[in-house]
Amino acid sequence: MIKVMVVDDDNLVRKGLISVMPWKKFGMEVVGEASNGLKALEFLESHNVDLMLTDLAMPVMSGVELIRRARKEFPHVYTVVLTLHQDFEYIQEALRLGAIDYIAKVQLEKDCFEEVLERIYNRMMEEPRRDYNANESISIDTGFVLLSVNKTTREYWIKEWHDKSDISMIEADTNLWFWTQPLEQSNQLWLERLLKEMGTKPGWSLIRLSGLMGKHDKDVHRRLREYRDKDFFYDYVPDSGVGSLSLQEADSHKQVRSEESMDRLKEQWSSNEWIYQDGVFHEHLHALKLMRLPQAMLLGLLYSLIDKWNLLFYSVGVDKIKLPDSFDSWEHVYSWCITIRNTIRKAIIRPSFSQEVVECILKAVQIAHDEMSQQITAVNLAKRVNMSRSYFSQCFKEIAGSNFSDYLRQVRMEKAKEYLLYTNKTVQWIAESVGYADEKYFSRTFREQTGMLPSKYRQMHAREQQ
């Protein structure tokens, strides 16, 4: 727990703050109070205090002098100023002396107590710990890292563990804790209890870190933050016990990727082989993991693949594939890919057709999308997928749900709608881009499908968007 002391010469203010603030919610408890700076120093000498809330204008010893003395004698204590709004010059002096925040008494209302305390807690977590020198070099080679895949929302349980132990843990970043400690038997028991607790806290991992000798704390913290941002996403494995990582290994991870490799990856995932062949599927996943794309780039790649998969598989009965808002780790990506693959395989199974026939029809569907601007006929397409025209037409209708001519027309009309809504291209250009050399014939076909001419369709939807 974070141990708190309240210092104010007004007894009602002290009692009020102690009773109404939601201390426990932020892992805090009030362990003492004082009516002036001198009594506060006496309390600090005999009690453990992590956070001191102090008034500035007090008899015997002012809050400014208290902060100055505490900074020298108790450098580990964080200070927050309690003040009236007119004490601006005093506030500046207190902040210059190291206070991390201030609370204006006149602005304290019941509905903002939690907000104020949360702000103070976050400031404490953002400040470097004051009981170590970040510029000192580390004198042992091994340490531990406790980190979570959750990088944004701070979890408070580990702070309680820190307060209960004699191990000096440093929070290098949100939910990223680091410490160096000889692995004695008592510490081993503490680690075992920590691992047991982690079993109830999903997303956390404990790693034994080596290669620390002679490194500076701040440099290690920076490299750990980089590792968590770039590589931990791919390395995290749930319920894996204590992992191991050398600082040199953390530095050696390099994302080997190029525009050509990205294009090749998209091409591999755009084909159908990974759906039917387990080996190909796992090879594609392994290649994707090895690229160690930043999470934003990985999501962008998956979005582009989903667009292609939906075009390809929706016509044969697969529900629209959607991407989660985010992925916690590569394990999450891996599980999602397996689920999507199983969904597609289940949906495209046709008991009356062989796998080869279904693959041929899927290939025909893909050609219809990729080459819609060209003159495509069922006869030509049947030859390209090595089927007779009559059998191709029969299979296409039963698997895709419509004959090939109707399907191709629908694909072209949907693409034409997209051009009309999101580009300023002329109707003639759009007609040619979706496979119609004759603009009038295109417009007539478009009206048959939508009930209006292309120009009218564009005007109507433009007004709706405005």
TrEMBL record:
Gene3D superfamilies: 3.40.50.2300, Homeodomain-like. Pfam families: HTH_18, Response_reg. It comes from the Bacteria. Residues 362-460 form the HTH araC/xylS-type domain. One of its GO terms (biological process) is phosphorelay signal transduction system. GO terms for cellular component: cytoplasm. Its main location: cytoplasm. The modification 4-aspartylphosphate is found at residue 55. Residues 3-120 form the Response regulatory domain. Keywords: Cytoplasm, DNA-binding, Phosphoprotein, Transcription, Transcription regulation, Two-component regulatory system. CDD domains: REC_YesN-like. PANTHER family: HISTIDINE KINASE-RELATED, TRANSCRIPTIONAL REGULATORY PROTEIN HPTR. This is DNA-binding response regulator. It comes from Paenibacillus oryzae.
